Amino acid sequence: MLQTERVPKKATNLSLSVATLDKARELGMNLSQTVDALLAEEVKRRYWEKWNERNKEAIADYNERIAQHGLPLAKYRTFGKSLGDGRRET
Question: Per-domain residue ranges for the chain?
Fold first, then answer.
């Protein structure tokens, strides 16, 4: 989703715990890179969390359709036949 390399950067101000900041500097950490990478991961996580929430009804409908009717084109599959076609046993 978001690539933190090769994109323009923008200066920003952050308020960080003095103890954490001191430890990070002591360990030679690049604060900008670390915060950027961690923030990108959190943005990605929240994006997909919201996407799943917005689409949960469609996902449930699709799963129900597969449970009732099986996978479309399942008869043409040449792999995973032991997994069945997705239908519930009745």
Answer: 39-90
